[in-house]
Amino acid sequence: MVKSSPQSDKNKLYFSSKLNELLHLNNKKQIDLHRDLNIPKSTITGYVKGTSLPTMGNLQKIADYFNVLKSDIDLRFKITNDNNEGGLKLSLLAKYKKLNTENKKKVVDYADNRLKDQMRQAKIHPINENDNTYYVDVLGSVSAGTGEWLTDEQHEEVMVNNVPPAHDFALRVNGDSMTPTFSDGQIIYVNKIYDTEEVRNNQFVIAELNGDSYVKKIVFDDNRKNCRLISLNKKYADIKLKKSDDFKIVGVVII
Question: Which element (helix H / strand E) includes 215?
Answer without folding.
Answer: strand 212-220
